[in-house]
Amino acid sequence: MYRKEISKSAEKPKIPISRLTLPPKPTHGKECGTPNFKYQIERSSVSSLNSTGHPQSPSTTSSTLSRSINKSQCNSPSRNSSPVLNNFSAYSRSALSLSQLYREDVSPLDNEFRDNKEAIKKLESENLRLKNELAQNKEVMQELREKIANLRKESREKDDRIANINALLKESEKNFKNLLETQNSGFDKDKDEKIKDLEFNLKMQKKELTEQFLKEKQELEIKILDLEMLYKEKNSNDISLITGNYLEDLTKQIKLIEENYSKLQRENKELKQILENSSMQAIAKLTSQIEAEIIQLNQVFTIMISQSEISLAMILLAAQSRINPSPSPKTITFSLEKTLQELSIMRTSISDLYAEKCGGSCKIQ
């Protein structure tokens, strides 16, 4: 827009022919009061008007000069006047009128042209500054997208860890319930109380772990909401590409949990059949298997807390590979004291590892 205005204002003004002072015809000895003399005065006075039709002060000077020249011609005898002198005075009046036209018309246009050039330079510098700010805002928004994606990923990992821990705790609870249902009535009250304490410890452990992970999940969700609000202030576009393949990963984890659940159901059925069709030696063997399973659970928790990026299937395989083969019946002893001791060690080791991991080097503060 500014360039169009400048091009229009920079056009050279067309000087009307009526404003130019033409050289008069020679009088050849005529008197100064002739119409030729009046014509020269009128033309010079017309050339002194500006574009609006109002006279300017310099025009008075040009008309006065032309009159003084004509009066000097009139005072001289007519025999001394010549066409050369008349032409010279006419050309001088034309030069004065042209200089006056330049001052009135061309000089303001030059000033306006310079002002427009300065305005264009200012606008170009402002445009460059706005482009730089836009590039910086794009970089900030990209960093916010990456932070939100990382926080969502960590939140999904926390959810997976909570689900895995809940599944393992449910499995251990089922095994202990089956053991309690198949126990002989010949056990004394002391062992019954120890079993109740064991169940209570398992419930408390599950509650503590669940509360801790839920608290961390809530903190992650609050951070995600804060970052989303900050991102929406920078850009109004919808954040739709951050979730990635979250639904696919969740579906795979659910299928894996269902497979493990069906496997555990089959194992429980087999254990029930063994308990129903066996004697005290089979019960002692089952107790030793439960002890081995508790040891396995302890190892699983240790691996899970120290290396949270390993999937549930890999954790189960790694823990299963650590279990020794089935012991011989000669070395089997039925001892709930040892079971309780293993559970206590498991609980303390998990809490110690969790405290050590979250003490100063947690991924999510």
TrEMBL record:
Start-end of Basic and acidic residues biased regions: 1-14
Keyword Coiled coil: yes
Coiled coil: 113-182, 217-281
This protein's UniProt keywords: Coiled coil
Ranges of biased composition (kind: Low complexity): 51-68
Disordered: annotated segments: 1-85
Keyword Coiled coil: yes
Protein name stated in the entry: Uncharacterized protein
Lineage: Eukaryota, Sar, Alveolata, Ciliophora, Postciliodesmatophora
